[in-house]
Design a protein that fits this description.
Elements (H helix, E strand, L loop, with lengths): L1 H10 L5 E2 L10 H13 L4 E4 L2 E3 L3 E2 L2 E2 L4 H9 L8 E4 H8 L8 E6 L6 E6 L2 E7 L9 H12 L7 H14 L3 H8 L4 H10 L7
Parallel strand pairs: 7-9
Antiparallel strand pairs: 1-3, 2-3, 4-5, 6-7, 8-9
Helix pairs in contact: 5-8
Length: about 200
């Protein structure tokens, strides 16, 4: 079917297709939804969850399954064209090495959320969404992620080893002083205080 070929060309196999983003010439949203329903019944498309579909690949174990991570990253962090979110909280701290605790909940700060804080299920994964107080773009995402982290960390109980890892994170992100200072006023005063007391302010280029 031509529609499947067009979808495969646009999205690829086993990649999230968000129904509300699909545009097909000559079809309105209602008709597109009906076409997707028919394609699912024929086994050409798989439905991951509400408004999320994918083209399955055949494997030795049968049809492939779409991972929750691919879905929540596309819905809330980035797609091929733009960035609109970033990881935060324990999942970020674990990635940096500030904690060995493996979070059960994935926390994301995103433009694509109207509530101050909300928890949703993406497949079997619980995701905590927080609305960004500054519009996230590809240019400022790493800066806002850093400032969000500095606003939320607990320096009193942080060992020196973790502070060194925090400094390494700043170096790796190549954060510039003027860029950070441009946005730090958008965050609570403890953000700047933690930057100074942790010593990471000296790692800004």
């Amino acid at each position: 079917m031509e529609i499947i070929q067009n979808l495969k060309k646009a999205y690829g196999d086993n990649e999230p297709i968000l129904l509300n983003e699909v545009n097909i010439a000559g079809m309105n949203k209602v008709y597109i939804r009906q076409v997707f329903t028919r394609l699912v019944k024929r086994g050409r498309l798989e439905r991951f969850g509400q408004g999320v579909y994918y083209i399955p690949k055949m494997t030795s174990l049968g049809k492939s399954r779409l991972s929750a991570k691919k879905v929540y990253e596309k819905k809330y962090i980035c797609n091929e064209k733009k960035v609109y979110g970033f990881y935060a909280g324990l999942i970020l701290e674990n990635a940096i090495g500030l904690t060995t605790q493996v979070p059960n909940i994935v926390e994301i700060v995103t433009n694509n959320e109207g509530s101050r804080r909300r928890e949703v299920m993406v497949g079997k994964q619980k995701v905590r969404l927080r609305k960004s107080n500054v519009k996230i773009t590809e240019r400022n995402a790493r800066i806002l992620q850093f400032l969000d982290l500095m606003n939320r960390i607990d320096l009193k109980n942080m060992p020196e080893e973790s502070k060194d890892k925090l400094k390494s994170f700043v170096k790796e992100k190549k954060l510039k002083r003027e860029e950070v200072f441009l946005y730090v006023t958008k965050f609570p005063s403890r953000t700047a205080k933690n930057m100074i007391e942790s010593g990471v302010i000296n790692e800004l280029t």
